[in-house]
Input
Amino acid sequence: MRPDDVAFLTGLVAEKSGLALSADKVALMESRLMPVARRRGLKGPRELVAAIRGRPSDALIRDVTEAMTVDDTAFFRDTAPFALFRDVVLPQLLERRAATRAFRIWCAAAATGQEPYSLAMILKEAADSLTGWRHEIVATDVSAGMLAKARAGVYSQFEVQRGLPVQMLMTYFTKRDALWEIDPALRAMVRFREFDLRHGLRPLGRFDVVFCRNVLIYFDDETKGRVLNEIRSLMPDDGVLFLGQSETVHGISDGFTPLPDQRGVFRPADGPAPGSPASS
Amino acid sequence: MTSCLVVDPSKVARTVACRFLQALQIETTEAADGGEALAVCEATMPDSVLLDWTPPATDGMAFLTALRRLPGGDRPRVLMCSSRTDPDHIRQAMEAGADEYIMKPFDSEVIRSKFAQVGLL
Output
């Protein structure tokens, strides 16, 4: 983006949200705006800025402001997917995997670790019903830098106040100087691995639950379709796929069908309907 | 509209907090100390209180105890905020009846997240 694009955007965000974005965060702004542009069939952030200048619509301005201000790395981000995992998906796994007492979860875009650690906290809170079970959370990301931070499990005061209830902060984190470090027992529940989704998923093995949120938006439709079909093939028929809240498989992959009344949650299209008896 | 009483001895701190809250469509009133805050609550009980507690400068804890004894005083969600960030201090606030705890300094996203946490967004 050109400096005047950046100035225009920071002005817009300041006006709409009261937030002052620093103009030196151009790369961050661009990475946040790319998915918004793509969703509207635009090439990139510059075209998006041109579109707002040309014909500003409330919806477009809201999307742009939200993308630039909502933190990408909150614990329990979007709340609803984690509530669904805790209240529906996990109890179903306990019932359907009672014979093997094992399940695996994959976070496909783990970034700085908030998503896998949120899932680890949910499993920890359900520890009583998981006695004797083997479970694994595999957390991958394409960025080695992000993963290093995720592995360390050390977060700033701002980071631990995004999405994390204070009771959980008290239970699962230890304060070290100005930073907060996650309980080593939680860290041990997650296996981190550097991985590019575009290079074939087979080496990762099979997963009962896949969180692949807000990452496919960076890919073109062909790559998106290929990755979704590969996810389907590494999942049992009763698996669950979590995409971002505004993501869809429609027109991209026929391997999945949305769960009713849930945003961004899918099951294999040829799998059993929710509530039906477990498949073998 | 959801309402929030912002209690902080610093006028600047109150103004910043109110601006963040108003951006979330939360109606704000202000009080500079616990006594003033209690008078506000006796007149009209707010849905929430953003309560500074940075000893010894403020009497946040005394206000919280008095608030919870008022008729209807168990209803407001109380979010304690303080530049004290040690776990013992946080635990003490929660045991005294706070619903959430915000470590200062905070930004608008922390405010949004914590108000969502206590079910007001």
Chain A has ten helices and ten strands.
